[in-house]
Design brief:
The chain is built from eight helices and six strands, in the order βαβββαβααβαααα. The protein has helices at 17-30, 78-84, 104-107, 117-123, 133-140, 146-155, 162-172, 175-190; strands at residues 5-12, 34-41, 49-57, 70-75, 88-97, 127-131. Helix 2 (78-84) links the parallel strand 4 and strand 5 (88-97). The N and C termini lie far apart (33 Å).
C-alpha cells in the first residue's frame, strides 16, 4: 500500500467540498489511477462538519483515511483544519482557507472561536499553507468558487498540469459558471505566500 496517496477535504456543509472531491477524483482517474472517494457527512445541511476522503494509487482497497495517514489535508474552514490535524501524516501538507464559520457552540454563546489557529497549526510543525481563498473567490465572481480556488492551490502541490485541471473543470461545472470557475482556479493556482 506504499504507493497510495491519501487526501482529505474537510469543511462545513455548503462550502462545496463535494464538487472539489469530484474535480480531484476526475483528475486522478483521467491520469489512470485507481481512485476511491468516500464522503462522510455530518450535519452538512446545517453548517456542520463535512469530510471527504480521496485515495489514489496503483490499487486502492479502502477510501478511509486513518489518523496520521493523510498526505494532504485541504481545509475549507479554519476550525476544521484544527479538528482534522491529527489525520495529517508527519511531513504531510495542509492547505487552509482562513475563512471562519462559527460552529454551533460559538453561535449559541457556549464557546468562543479559537484564536490564532494558523499560528497554532504551524507551531505543531505542520507544513501549512494558509490563504484567504474566499477573497480570491469573490474576485473571480462568487464566494461559491472558494472550492475551485483551493483546487488551484492544491494543483501546485501535485504533479498534474494545470491544463488537465481546467479540462476537468470544463467537463464538471455547468456552462453558465464555467468562466468564473476557471478564473477561480487560475487565482488559486497563481497565488503564492
Amino acid at each position: 500500500m506504499k504507493n497510495v496517496t491519501s487526501i482529505m477535504i474537510v469543511g462545513v456543509g455548503g462550502q462545496g467540498t463535494l464538487l472539489a472531491s469530484r474535480l480531484l477524483g476526475n483528475v486522478l482517474m483521467n491520469e489512470g489511477f485507481d481512485v476511491k472517494v468516500s464522503e462522510v457527512h455530518g450535519m452538512s445541511q446545517r453548517g456542520g462538519s463535512v469530510v471527504t476522503y480521496v485515495k489514489y494509487g496503483e490499487k486502492v482497497h479502502s477510501p478511509v483515511v486513518e489518523k496520521g495517514e493523510a498526505d494532504i489535508i485541504i481545509a475549507f474552514e479554519l476550525c476544521e483544519a484544527a479538528r482534522w490535524l491529527p489525520y495529517l501524516k508527519k511531513g504531510g501538507k495542509m492547505i487552509v482557507n482562513t475563512q471562519q464559520i462559527d460552529p454551533m457552540p460559538v453561535i449559541t454563546g457556549a464557546a468562543s472561536y479559537p484564536e490564532n489557529l494558523v499560528e497554532k497549526l504551524k507551531a505543531t510543525g505542520c507544513d501549512c499553507t494558509a490563504l484567504d481563498a474566499l477573497s480570491l473567490a469573490e474576485q473571480a465572481g462568487s464566494s461559491k468558487a472558494t472550492n475551485v480556488v483551493l483546487m488551484g492551490v492544491v494543483a501546485n502541490f501535485m504533479e498534474f498540469p494545470a491544463e488537465l485541471w481546467k479540462q476537468i473543470i470544463e467537463q464538471t461545472v455547468p456552462p453558465k459558471f464555467l468562466e468564473m470557475n476557471l478564473k477561480a482556479f487560475d487565482l488559486g493556482n497563481q497565488w503564492s505566500e
